[in-house]
Design a protein that fits this description.
By secondary structure, the chain is mainly beta. Helices cover about 5% and strands about 40% of the residues.
């Protein structure tokens, strides 16, 4: 059963809890209060347009998916490029057009190669570990035990779980139970996946009336659903990003707020999501924490396509201006 967290009623719920003498589950400032935060600087300056994914392995290496989407660049924490995948160890294996990447605890790189209708799995040295057929994969999250979660444009489920042998072991998440026509076309990408070290799966919808995030465990149980009111990010809201989409029923372009990036703190399971340059923060149980507006030192809006949450900082990758570093605003108020 999905536990819905309706943020429009947040203050009413908190007041009711307080009146009943129960300890409130949110002790931060009101979600409506926004604070502008500036990047401390740009990192990996060689990376510019079309950044689509940014990951870090246990050894501290950074894996970046950017244009031309056929090569994954590997950087050290000093900002210097160390390697690329595919490489000579890949023995001719190619990436045609990658949509997303992730890393597991052993350092294996999972690539959702939509251009090849496949999941490519590379070892840390660039050698090929597996190639698994998948119809138009668009997002991926590595799981414990060699499994991974994938979202595809050809599945009638939101999440498909594939085992280490490349077999579909379960699928869950029905897009038709989300209000607003998220399932108006089974040939659309419904959202983006993220994971944490406990094997939980986070699904951020990108084709729904209201921005929505679900948290599942690896077996498909939904721990919560965060439902944001679209009116909070409506065209008359200051500093909102207008995103054009094509309504598949009317063929008329319409604007709507969408979640353009999601990142998860792998240890605390706190979620960070971006709508335009609004960076939203949620606790482990899905309670909403303060919202921030992200800009460069010069005041240029940063609208991330990828978020990487680290113990002391957050990296936001935006197209076409690059990757920027922020001090954790929750740790440095």
């Amino acid at each position: 059963m999905i536990r819905r967290i309706q943020l429009g009623a947040f203050l009413f719920v908190c007041a009711a809890i307080a009146a009943a003498g129960v300890h409130s589950f949110a002790e931060t400032s009101s979600p409506e209060v926004e604070r502008e935060i500036q990047a401390t600087g740009r990192v990996f300056p060689e990376i510019g347009p079309a950044v689509n994914a940014l990951k870090r392995d246990v050894s501290g290496l950074y894996y970046i998916l950017a244009a031309p989407a056929s090569v994954i660049s590997v950087y050290g924490d000093d900002g210097k490029r160390r390697a690329s995948i595919p490489n000579d160890n890949s023995k001719g294996a190619k990436i045609v057009y990658a949509e997303d990447i992730d890393l597991d605890a052993t350092g294996r790189l999972f690539v959702a190669d939509r251009g090849a209708n496949a999941i490519r799995v590379f070892r840390a040295d660039g050698s090929v570990d597996a190639t698994i057929p998948a119809s138009a994969p668009t997002s991926i999250a590595a799981l414990p035990g060699g499994e991974f979660a994938v979202e595809t444009q050809r599945s009638d489920r939101l999440v498909n779980i594939i085992d280490a042998q490349g077999k579909l072991v379960r699928a869950f998440g029905d897009p038709s139970d989300l209000a607003g026509g998220a399932a108006s076309s089974r040939f659309l990408s419904h959202g983006r996946l993220a994971g944490d070290s406990a094997g939980n799966i986070y699904f951020a919808f990108t084709y729904s009336a209201d921005p929505t995030i679900r948290k599942y465990d690896r077996f498909g149980y939904s721990a919560y659903e965060i439902s944001l009111s679209a009116s909070e990010f409506s065209p008359d809201t200051a500093n909102r990003r207008d995103v054009l989409r094509l309504d598949r029923h009317t063929s008329v372009p319409a604007s709507k707020p969408v979640i353009n990036a999601i990142g998860v703190d792998p240890l605390t399971q706190e979620v960070w999501a971006a709508i335009g340059n609004a960076l939203l923060h949620f606790s482990k149980d899905g309670s909403r924490l303060p919202t921030y507006r992200t800009v460069t030192k010069e005041g240029v809006r940063i609208e991330p396509k990828a978020i990487l949450v680290e113990p002391g900082r957050i990296l936001l990758a935006a197209d076409p201006i690059g990757i920027f570093e922020f001090a954790r605003p929750d740790l440095h108020p």
